[in-house]
Design a protein that fits this description.
This protein is of the alpha/beta class and 744 residues long. Helix content is 46%, strand content 16%. The strands form five sheets. Strands 11, 12, 13, 14, 15, 16, 17, 18 and 19 form a nine-stranded mixed beta sheet that branches. It has a six-stranded parallel beta sheet with strand order 3-2-6-7-1-8. Strands 23-22-21-20-24 form a five-stranded antiparallel beta sheet, with helices on one face. The termini are far apart. The chain binds a DNA duplex (15 and 10 nucleotides) through helix 4, helix 21 and helix 28.
Length: 744
Amino acid sequence: MPDSFLDDLTAAQREAVTHVDGPLLVLAGPGSGKTRVITFRIVHLLRHGVRPWQILALTFTNKAAGEMKQRVDRLAPDNRVWISTFHSLGVRLLRHYADRLGLDRNFTIYDQADRVRMVKSAIESCGIDNVRFTPETIQTAISKAKNQLLLPARYAAKANDFFSQVVAQVYAAYEKKMRDANALDFDDLLLWPALALQNDAELRAELDARFRYVLVDEYQDTNQAQYEIAKGLSQDFPNLCVVGDPDQSIYKWRGADLRNILDFEKDFPNARVVTLTENFRSTKAILAAADGLIAHNVKRKAKTLVTANQAGKPVATLLFETGVDEAEQIAARIQAELAAGRRHYRDFAVLVRITALTRGLETAFLRQRVPFQIVRGLAFFERKENKDVLAYLRLLLNPRDDISFLRIVNEPARGIGKTSLDHLQRYAEPRQLSLHDAAVAVEKIPEIKGKAAAGLRNFIRLMHDLRSLLEHAPDEVIRAVLERSGYLEALAASDDREDEDRVGNVKELITAAHQFHQEDPNRTLADFLENITLASDVDSWDDKQNCVAVMTLHAAKGLEFPVVYLLACEQGILPHERSLNQDEELEEERRLAFVGMTRAKEELYLTHCRLREFRGQTNYQIPSMFLDELPASVAFEDLSASGSGGPKALDRWRSGLATASRGWYETGEFAARSAATKPRAAAATADAAVYREGMLVQHETYGVGRVTSVTGHGALRKVKIHFRQSGERTFLADKARLTVVAKE
DNA sequence: ATCCAGTACGTTTTT
DNA sequence: CGTACTGGAT
């Protein structure tokens, strides 16, 4: 069969694609056709007699895996190549080899929030009170340990400062609780397979032989556990192909270890190395700017990026007066491009360092009617009502899941309060019982009686009844949960307007489950839950919609857009303040900026502003040090004078500042309370008293909405308003620009 | 047991 | 500026 599909490749790409046996390292700069190389190489292997099930391709996000699958399918239909994320592979292996590893096959996967609760509970059971470390801090330390394959015993042995000793103690208790709850966290999904490959020679050999050709995408972001997995699967059949770019490593904070890619040639001495430097994505201008920036990283193998593309428009930095101007003017510029017929909405991406910055964009885009999609955490599944329903499902599948038990045992209210739950826990703990099993034996707990005991009995009966439905389609199980638990009824009976939305959301959850089942009827309820927990934010990104993309720099990795705005290039934001004191962290921030810049194909704008309101404070911003590092070819535009607030806003702020705070400049305290809030408060109090629940009001951005609640007094009086489009919003009564439409 | 209001707290990036 | 928890009132 002629390999005509190779014709369009460059010499370097072809070298990587046609490499069959032995280790291969592909160093691929941005836009150098990395994904293409991986997919083509898979197809090439298939055409040269490698059996599909002998190939394993690993990615970091489901979206990347899905896209790769699609592209391989197009060239080689009906293949059965295993393409998945590291975490999905981990789950599959752990469920398959559960017995051998001493795990219960029905384990629940705990997400970030669950883990923190678990750490909290572990801290309590260690009897550590008055800890000055937050559960989150300790959780991060545990996660880091797991990424380095350190189990509690080995971690404790190495703990030689107070913090690590506290962590060691909590870590051990946490692990015990996780086993008792039959739960695994995200890190376990990599840690357990990695340890199994290290310790079980037979298992390792079996898997190594099964997966003879292993490909790893974004190798620069692998942590030690992932490294051990890739290595373990490539000993007897060392056909490991890794693809990555050290300059795009942006997950150090999650345990990624750059040494994995830098030392690949040491680990596999006979490895072939192919470097892809030709960029097919960006203009010369964009590439030169990005290249100029990344050259400032010291710990780096230098590599020059080249492109045969056009010179293109100059890259520009744009200065605005305030963050509001920044958002408004970007929206206006996008609308102008559309009006001129030069672009579609989907041509634009606005990238931010921190999710909090998407808020201002949302307001501006809504106001100027720019369609947009914000790629951020799966807000839908994180809503209370959906989490509640999911907790029911998790408890049905895994009765030992105490976190889920606590979440729903009194949801809807069954008369089971804190006191009763304390008794239940005090009964369960010494007997090594799960809360669920303790509740089964509620008769034996004399402290729990009356309404609480009846409530627990009802709850246990409910779970028992529901469990008989587990074999049904996921959406049917959810419907049964909602109806038999009285959850839906309680929502319907409530006169809280928020609960109306909740009904809608929960119904949407049923739809999601239904679709999931339709796509592949073999998939079970457990698969549905797993899918939700392992989903990432980028997965929800729909590139077919004609919308402006708003997302974090991390989420943007691997994507490309004709026009990119990189927002808030200011000290403290990009680079982030937590990185300012450490060189290594600072280099990662620079790589993050590099990733953002290289997403652009034709136009790139780096924006910053003088004043930014952030967490309720207005700060003077210092331009990002990265802006100074850009080559001289980058243009500088000061758009601050033409902004809606203009320099007047600055003056207003300054004059207010004179009374609010003194000597801010001298002390280096750039943070100062917004001057606007105080003087205005007194004048507007009279108006603020006007709002009443049930009123219809008009807001200049969100349109007409209904007042759902009014709380607080004077300047702190708040109105909660429900808008059809944007949901619930809260405003300070005397600050919000509202007009009353109807009093009832 | 439940509800609400007031307060303390912490705010990067995510499988 | 939010959210999450606590402590008081019902």
